[in-house]
């Protein structure tokens, strides 16, 4: 297996797990043979692992065989011990406690970086005193992009990373961290021109605070940009979410009509549709498209707060309920708390009723409450 297979295998398992849950089993990754020219890739991988070493018990001992391969006078001999070390560290990056499920009550942190090869980003949240990964992102640069100046590459990394994590960041305040100090000035240009102006306009849709930090503290995003892994489809990417919405018979008619026009269709047009579609039709003015995906804009009665809720297809409902209620981060809370957590990010027809049914039928919750007295 060559270096491309190495990148692809690692990226696939990272993206697969980040898009799903920290509790599900990781897909097996085939054995990997590394050739001499991949030392640079190995150093980048070790840089990413080192950033999260505090989560990995006996990190130094586990990583020692790989560190030996990067020494200047070392013969590059990929042994069974190296294979075991690589797989152990890779598994640590894509499972708990490094990787965790997003919390609606915590601020997101987005670290971005760019190199001559590509761009990289890590989306995190601070849980307790530790920063835990929500998802990774990296992308190779095309030939025209490689000719950009350093500052333009760094700005490209911000734009692409924010848009990639749109479903987490849109409508929420978050912290953006970069190791490129001049970006703060660039984003505050009064009269930017051309491509910079277009990028700035796209970024104005988001609410973030930008923070500069030293390159020595930016090893997570830096490692992903130095040797970008091949990008694979995220189960929560815009294309996958849109596909699920179009496959949902209740959502599809609304989505298709929204694409054609923002004007609400007449009752005569919607009357033949199913009841759930009619209930979505009643919410027409609060439904909006972003990158071809349908969202609901919810606002408080006094207009002081709002949130963007992804219109969730029924096919994804089980996954969200499982993570929000049954997972380690879910906590098996009651109906109202579970309902509130889901409503922070999602909306679907009969949401409240589905939450009530799920909590009522949860065996763990039932066992905790004990048998009901029949008098």
Quickly count the helices: 18
Uncertain spans: 1-37
Helix/strand-derived category reads alpha/beta
Which descriptor suits the 3D outline?
globular
Q: SSE order in H/E notation?
A: HHHHEEEHHHEHHEHHHHHEEEHHEHH
CATH architecture of the largest domain: Orthogonal Bundle
User: Number of domains in the coordinates?
Assistant: 3
Biggest sheet record: 5 strands, mixed
Can you identify the CATH class of the largest domain?
Answer: Mainly Alpha
| Computed CA radius of gyration, to the nearest angstrom | 23 Å
Instruction: Estimate the strand proportion.
Output: 15-25%
- The pLDDT mean sits at 81
* First and last CA, distance: 68 Å
Helix content: 40-55%
The total strand number stands at 9
Largest sheet strand order: 3-2-1-4-5
CATH topology of the largest domain: Endonuclease III, domain 1
Q: What this model shows, in words?
A:
The protein is α/β, with parallel strands linked by helices and 375 residues long. It has 18 helices and 9 strands. The protein has 3 domains: 3-95, Reverse transcriptase/Diguanylate cyclase domain (Alpha-Beta Plaits, 2-Layer Sandwich); 108-188 and 196-212, Ubiquitin-like (UB roll); 238-368, Endonuclease III, domain 1 (Orthogonal Bundle). The strands form 2 sheets. A 5-stranded mixed β-sheet has the order 3-2-1-4-5. Helix 2 (39-51) runs antiparallel to helix 3 (59-69), helix 2 packs antiparallel against helix 10 (219-226) and helix 6 packs parallel to helix 9 (194-203). The radius of gyration is 23 Å and the shape is globular. The protein starts with a helix and ends in a 6-residue tail after the last helix.
